[in-house]
Amino acid sequence: MEERESRAGGFRKETVDRLLRLHFRDGRTRVNGDAQLLMAEMLKVFVREAAARAARQAQAEDLEKVDIEHVEKVLPQLLLDF
Known about the structure:
Layout: H1 2-5, E1 7-8, E2 11-12, H2 13-21, H3 33-60, H4 68-81
Antiparallel strand pairs: 1-2
Helix pairs in contact: 2-3, 3-4
């Protein structure tokens, strides 16, 4: 149960916190729990959408296995959509 509470949207809170802190200019910037939950939810949606688009790309190429190249092909449009 404790592990579930330490996860937000499928990502560990520490992971979300580190990702956010990568782009902070001031090291003293703090992130509250609600912001972490919101960011984790956005990450979850982004990753699921990337996986779905990569799977559709693989299907369009008549392949059964999704590879990194499929993700690379859909990534530019995915980033524009987000």
